[in-house]
Amino acid sequence: MNGDAMHDEIARLEDRIETLASERERCRKIALAARLLAIAGAIWIVLVLTTLLPFDPATFLAAVAAALGGAVLMGSNKTTWEQTEAALCEAEVQRAELIGHLEMRLVEPAQENLH
Fold this sequence. Notes:
The chain is an all-alpha fold. The chain has helices spanning 3-49, 57-101. 80% of the residues lie in helices and 0% in strands.
């Protein structure tokens, strides 16, 4: 692979790394929302079962749905997070390998002009 092709491939990998990093950040936000949803549903269920809140079938069903939905979302998001993390690590390794194969030139420091 010639120098220009390597530079293009490195640039492509850097774009991919940025995309994957933003996907990972989105997964982090979804994980937080899923945890909050599951915890809020569970707390609501506990409050109803301990009779601190009156039983209402609609809100109880919504609390159960929130708890289960949060748990399912956490599991689904975990898989996506792991796949994104693996792809990100792979892209970083490929970029490092390409950079390692580049023939770097030593740039001489400029001579100071004393006037």
